[in-house]
Amino acid sequence: MGSSPLGYTPCEDCRGSGRKDDGSACPNCEGTGMAAVREPRDPENPEEWTTGRQRRFRRYLTDLPLTVSLGERDLDGYCNQIAEGGLGAFLAEPVPAGSVVVLHFAVPNPPTELHVQAVVRYQILFQHGVEFVSLGEGERLAIRQFCTELPSVSSV
Fold first, then answer.
1. Is the pLDDT of residue 95 over 50?
2. What CATH number does the domain located at 60-155 have?
3. For the chain, what is the total number of helices (H) and then of strands (E)?
4. Longest Cα–Cα distance in the chain
């Protein structure tokens, strides 16, 4: 028995196009170009995944305001999930996957202002999955310490 999806990532079979080489709909993602990412069936055995790829870092629920800089333009939003490798964010406008952005946000404990270069890995309407690409060790430690106070996505 599988779990419900936690989010979506570009389908690996069709590389996010939603189509097979012959132009028909991809059977893996049913033509959407996105594949569900699910938590492990057995939390004690994290190698047993129902679908998608295993994440490198556990994700945690949060509600942090953030600003995303796209060159000359800034978008406001909030972070609803965070991990050492990236975050999930709702933004005021869609930002296409592959966009390089700078995230501006603060973690409250320990109080740390972060300005991190990142790449948008997926975008579904206003929800975005963003991977950090320039996280220093001090910034990673601040995020790690902040996460210890948060509920993990898999425990909800």
1. yes
2. 2.40.10.220
3. 1, 8
4. 53
Is pLDDT above 50 for 1? no
At which residue do the structure tokens 């603060």 appear? 106
C-alpha span between 42 and 151 (Å, rounded): 18
Quick one: average pLDDT of 51-79? 86
Q: In the chain, where are the structural domains located?
A: 1-54, 60-155
Angstrom distance (rounded) from CA 156 to CA 115: 29
Question: What 8-state DSSP symbol labels residue 80?
Answer: E
* Whole-number Å distance between alpha carbons of 63 and 22: 43
| pTM listed for this prediction | 0.65
- The amino acid sitting at 46 is P
CA distance 58 to 83: 6
User: Which pairs count as long-range contacts for 128-136, CB under 8 Å and 24+ apart, including other chains?
Assistant: 128/88, 128/89, 128/90, 128/91, 128/94, 128/95, 129/7, 129/9, 129/86, 129/88, 130/86, 130/87, 130/88, 130/89, 130/101, 130/103, 131/85, 131/86, 132/85, 132/86, 132/87, 132/103, 133/100, 135/84
